[in-house]
Amino acid sequence: MTQTVHRVTRKSRQASSDVPGPRPPSFFFNGHAPRRRVLVAVVSALFGFALTVVWSAEFVDRTIGDNVADTLLGHHAKDTPIAGVLAGLAFALATGVAGTFTACNVAVFSALAPLTGQSSSRRQMAAALRPLSMLALGALAVSALYGVVAALAGTGMPQFDLNQSPASGLSARLVQAMVVYGLIGLAMLLLGLASLGVVRDPLARVSRRFPGAPMLFMGALIGAFLVGRPFPLFRQLFHDTAESQNVLYGAAAFSLQTLGNIAVMSVLFLLVTGVFGGRLHRWLTAKPSRASALMAGAFIAAGVFMVLYWDLRILARRDLIWYPMAPWAM
After folding, report:
1. Residue 184: its pLDDT value, please?
2. Nearest to residue 171, comparing CAs of 157, 161, 182, 181?
3. pLDDT band for position 284 (50/70/90)?
4. Residue-wise DSSP of 96-136
5. Phi, psi of 57, deg, nearest 5
6. Which helix (H) or strand (E) holds 19?
7. DSSP string, 241-260
């Protein structure tokens, strides 16, 4: 009898650590807000900020990105012209994988938070593939459409305008990247706050009718990473697509680029699901506020990184404002 009372007491204490959410449950908010919501938000935001301070685009783009692309293609990607459609498709997939950890794609790993916990054991690997497939579908839809636009518009798009404004030192291509990534960052911040129950989940109503809508939306955000992407190897693919004026090639090449972008994240998710799925699911369900904190932390960190890196730090690189940067990131 005493042991039973102790068990009930422990469970009661555990449950009391979850703060009842001020918002109704939805995909991005399970109705259990962490007790220290402010702490979760602040720590996540500080992590995103710290990442912008130490981030070295030179190391990630060239040391990692170029070497991975060269290894996958078997030749120097930057120095070898893209010869034909098949070569372009291979280039798109290889450079997509190579650009996994670039600043214009690293936020893709925030998608691991909503994906995690969708399945609870190795036997439910098929269930894990469903949200992942919706994520990929959303990303492919946006990237394929952008590939068609690039092929139709040709060389008249902002990515071909490298002329810098005398006043700001910013080119049209860079301004487009700042706007696109800034908006994506704000969207992730909103999802992070919704995961904490601070604001209403913007997809709550549509997700009740269409359960796959939130993952489609996340995929669409990832597909939008290609819009104005300044990664040099992607610009090379973009120029080849625009000059070809082949809409089918543009859609296929940009789709393969996006598939390469999410490949590492997808493999990591499936490995975590297969190896730790059961234990992770039990850990999250034992205290539902953990899932809220995990999702919120991932979105807020990614959102803060996107906004600060692609807006404030770029302005600092043009000596328009001051922004703290590590010596190796200057």
Report:
1. 96
2. 161
3. confident
4. HHHTTTSTTTGGGGGGHHHHTTS--SGGGHHHHHHHHHHHH
5. -65, -35
6. strand 18-20
7. HHHHT-HHHHHHHHHHHHHH
Pairwise CA distance, residues 238 & 61, whole Å: 17
Q: How far apart are CA 106 and CA 184, in angstroms?
A: 13
Q: Quote the DSSP letter at residue 163.
A: P
Cα atoms found within 13 Å of the Cα of residue 118, Cβ hemisphere only: 27
Q: Tokens at residue 7, please?
A: 């068990």
Dihedral angle at the C-alpha atoms of 71, 73, 76, 79, nearest 10 degrees? Answer: -160
- Please tell me the distance from the alpha carbon of residue 202 to that of residue 134, in angstroms, as a whole number: 18
Contacts of 312 (CB under 8 A, 6+ apart): 52, 321, 323
Is the separation of the CB atoms in 220 and 141 below 8 Å? yes
Residue with tokens 């070898």: 80
Say whether pLDDT at 242 is over 60: yes
> Measured between alpha carbons, how far is 328 from 83 in angstroms, rounded to an integer?
36
78 pLDDT more than 70: yes
pLDDT at 12: 43
Q: Which residues contact 217 (CB under 8 A, 6 or more apart)?
A: 138, 203
Residues 6+ apart with CB under 8 A from 215: 114, 115, 131, 134, 135, 138
What CA–CA distance (Å, rounded) separates 45 from 20? 23
pTM value? 0.88
